Amino acid sequence: MESQMSYHAARAALEWQIELGADEAIGDVPVVRYGLPDKLTAEPAAKPEHPAPSKPVQAAQGPEAAGPDPVAVAREAATAAPDLSALRAAMAGYEHCDLKRGARTLVFADGEPGARVMIIGEAPGREEDREGRPFVGAAGRLLDRMLAAVGMARAGDGEPVYITNVMPWRPPQNREPKPEEIAMMLPFLARHVNLAAPELLVVMGNTSCQAILGQRGITRLRGTWTEAFGRPALPMFHPAYLLRNPGAKREAWADLLSLRARLETER
């Protein structure tokens, strides 16, 4: 009984001191800190019998340490592609974009190469990643209906169009591509436009406008003709945006009529 009382008393005293703010255990004998030396001398560490040779500082500096510039590598690979088939192979062999590691397939293009109109979307979604074609699923079906309404189609009846994306691989969770990821793929896109040789470009969505035109704000940009890759370009709402905002279909219809009129004028 006596030992139990001593334990409880000691614990109560300790809790009381902690409550008062005590955070250090102090011995019974005071320490005269003025009598301590300014610096404590420690015994030098024993040297290894065979010390490893030190690496020169220059080895960790300079551009060589960081590896090749991914944009420069992309530009060289894209420039060397003589046709669309070679460009696709060059993109498939490009290893500097981490999106490739998480995607199922390379989404290159759809429609008819050499068409007068080339549509450039943003990045593949789940359905596009699964099928390896841009603009499939609900957004793709809406795009097909939009094109059919003005006599165009990616396949079948109607004036042909050619379709691709800024990014050939799906970002995780459909997030927006990072600026450095876009920068890596822009040389491939520029070469893609050059090889496909369309007369007009349709730039769909904010990400595409940011990558190609250097501007965001699709509600402000849409419907106004500009220039991209040396060709007339028309910013438009992305079909996925129209699915979320059906009220914007009126503006999209006006943009399609503008595209149709431009084609008729320059025929």
Q: Using DSSP, what is the number of strands?
A: 7
N-to-C SSE string, H for helix and E for strand: HHHHHEEHHEEHEHHEEHH
Q: Report on the biggest sheet.
A: 7 strands, mixed
pLDDT under 50 segments (min length 5)?
Answer: 53-64
End-to-end separation in angstroms reads: 107 Å
Structural class: alpha/beta
Our count of helices gives 12
| General shape | elongated
What share of residues are in beta strands?
A: 5-15%
Radius of gyration: 32 Å
Overall average pLDDT: 86
Helix residue percentage = 40-55%
Explain this structure to me?
There is one protein chain. With 267 residues, the protein is an alpha/beta fold. Helix content is 45%, strand content 11%. It has twelve helices and seven strands. Strands 1, 2, 3, 4, 5, 6 and 7 form a seven-stranded mixed beta sheet that branches. Helix 3 runs parallel beside helix 8. About 4% of the residues have low confidence.
Features:
267 residues, 7-stranded mixed β-sheet
Secondary-structure map:
Elements lengths: L1 H19 L42 H4 L3 H11 L3 H9 L6 H4 L7 E2 L5 E5 L4 H6 L5 H13 L2 E2 L5 E7 L13 H18 L3 E5 L1 H8 L4 H4 L4 E3 L2 E6 L2 H6 L4 H17 L2
Parallel strand pairs: 2-4, 2-5, 3-4, 5-7
Antiparallel strand pairs: 1-4, 6-7
Summarize the structure.
The chain is an alpha/beta fold and 267 residues long. Helix content is 45%, strand content 11%. It is built from 12 helices and 7 strands.
